[in-house]
Amino acid sequence: MKSAILATLIGSAAAFAPAQTSTTTTTTLAASNTRPDLWTPTTSYQNEIGAIAPLGFFDPLGLVKDESQEKFDHLREVEIRHGRCAMLAVTGWLTTAAGVRLPGMEAAPFGFKALLMEGLPSDVRGTIPLTLMTVFCLTVFMQDSTGENAFPGDYRNGLIDFGWDKQTEEWQNRKRAVELNNGRAAQMGILGIMVHEQLGNLNDIGLPQP
Question: What global pTM score does this model have?
Fold first, then answer.
């Protein structure tokens, strides 16, 4: 089972690979002329972090068409928050699927069955409120409390930095693109795992079925 999970992680590495950010070139502009009108950038956001090849700026529903920078930043922050939670979810699912457990919780199931904990002692079932508390903490603390965030999703709040401000703008943009793209892949990944778990065919895609 662990080998299957490891193989899945290696196989999905391409989906989680960071994309380099770059300025618009003559080639990309020429390519955009061949796209359907639905995909063609119609706002000033086509050079924002996250606009990557082959689609570039992709807004088929027109969510930010003629919208303000404030609206765009809000949607970007929502995307980043969802991506961060999804990355935690994928990591947690794969970890528990590999059989890793906290002491005393060796018999705890994984996947959706972990929400029920049927037939397990009450002290083990008591971890469910802890999980809900984690969600609450993520909601409360993933906020720009000081109003001094440098970009959407910047929740340092003057408390931590890890040398971020000492890096070049190019380095910072690359790291932001890495997080954004990993979060996008994780959102699709955890959604796919949840759907296939309910369909009962996770084994068909190389993952253990709870």
Answer: 0.72
